[in-house]
Automatic annotation (TrEMBL):
It comes from the Bacteria. Substrate binds at residue 392. Mn(2+) binds at residues 234, 276, 452-453. Gene3D superfamilies: 3.30.1120.170, Alkaline Phosphatase, subunit A. Its main location: membrane. The chain crosses the membrane at residues 7-27, 33-53, 65-85, 105-128, 140-159. This is Phosphoglycerol transferase MdoB-like AlkP superfamily enzyme. The active site is at 276.
Amino acid sequence: MKKTTGFPVAYLFLFLLIKVIAFRVLIFDTKSLATIAFIEFPMWALLLALVLIGVKKRTWLAVWIYNFIVSVIFFTVTLYIRYYSTIPSYYDLQQATQSSSVGNTIAMLANPFDFLFFLDAILVAIFARKWRIHAKPQKLKYMAVAAAALCIATTVYALKQPLIDVSYFAKENGYLQSQAVQLYLRSNETAHASSTKLSLKQLEALKGNEYVELEQQKGFGLAKDRHLFVIQVESLQDFVIGKSVNGQEITPNLNKLLGESAYFSNVFQQIGAGTTSDAEWIANTGLYPQGMIPTVNSLNGKAVPSLPRTLQKYGYGSATYHADDVTFWNRDVLYPVLGYDEVYSTEEIPNIKPVGFGPADEVVFDFAAEKLPKQLDRYDRIYANIVTVTSHTPFIMPEDMQGLDLPAEYEEMYVGNYLQSVHYADEQIGVFIEELKDQGLYDDSLVVIFGDHSGMHGSLVTEEDKALLDKFIGHPYTIKDQFTVPLLFTGGNLFHGIQMDRLGGQVDIMPTILALLGIDHEDPMMGHNLFQYKKNLLGMRYYLPGGSFIQSEQLYKAPGAKFPEVLYDLKSMETRGKNSEAKKHIRDTDTLLNYGDLLLKPYLKN
């Protein structure tokens, strides 16, 4: 049937405007129509106008494709911010191949109303069958010129604003403008503009400490000449340590180890978009990750001064065990950069008893235990890095692997699944510790156990889950509970029930390990020996808005996409009024992060 009825092109822009308004309200809680009309909408409108002007044939198809792409972007941003609490950038397109790590959570994240973003694409498909697009080319050109003028003005203005936090920047300057600015900054390398180097004394002064020479620091050489085992536990948060439910300990093996460990209970995650791989990077370099970009996606292949490389100078052979595809998170690049002598992934680890997206932790620990005698024959001392995977989102465990008898209120709840998976991981750690003892290695080893990042975060933690968490912990679940991960140092006759609540970060793991082993790394690190220094200052670029800091007495959360800035007392997590001390910490944190960028820059692609 011939299409004779004209479809007013203004309706297409109206549909787009409604969709943009919905996006801004949902993501940024925007209440200003002026912000939408003059900052956010013009760039989206300009792109639509260019489609209408440039495509002379099959115009409806071009319009449909454009609407569909915009819908996919809005839908993806919505799910992303629910899980990560931050706005994705164009950098995150690099993570497309990593989507299987959270594939099982997509259905849990999506809300049926989210699919309304695709409503206009459906309407366009219907209209295309009966109407032709009625548009006057001259008016479209005038509209495009006007929109382009606004876009240029807002983008130029945005380029002059400091890009500290992507989410807040996008809220104030527009989502597409924020992407354009990030692309410009990256192409001009201004993201790493600082060239200010810090001496060890200056670094510690920023953190509030007086520098002490390494050989004079507390704990130096306490574990000298020992083997090293580092166990990075997926999604392990500190709030489960020492806790019970229904008379059952969540982490009985870790709790038992506390009596012969040095346990730091106030250590914060510092990962960026690379999540678990970022934790591997931080723990083995003592350097900050990039933040919005997974560090592993940007490595140029250059050898980095690392824990494996430094230990090699002292007769250590190194191996890393991770029951996943070695190309996942580009670990086929990461591990050679870190300098491991041996790498074990799913190519070598038996793919049996699968849980989630890899073999169960017990398979990994058994495999590692079997390799130890051969490594001991080959090297004077060994460094084994073991990364667990079973306690990964969404924490769904087979029934025969659920070791806890949870109350009915926990059944089929996200927090209940989490406790089950952490309990299982703890069980396998206990089995591995006993294996080290059976092989006569425990008394000659330093064993380090830490959590890589939070598991209980984002919109998957429902109000019902939150209530259960509050009850389980004994106080309201805060961002401090979310971001603190346990850090234990243990081994035969090393420690006797030491617990410290001084502030630490994941950048402090490697410096503390080397201090205990009595080894000087020589190259700069961002962290320090936790046994020596009482004060600390930490930055986090991803799960907290840019400009945030964690300091020994205060935690500052900078303004983000939806929420205003807030300053907490770190111990009580009660809010405080912003003071001159907090302003100084903001400046000092910026100095720390810029210095971290400077140290990182040589190992990144141009």
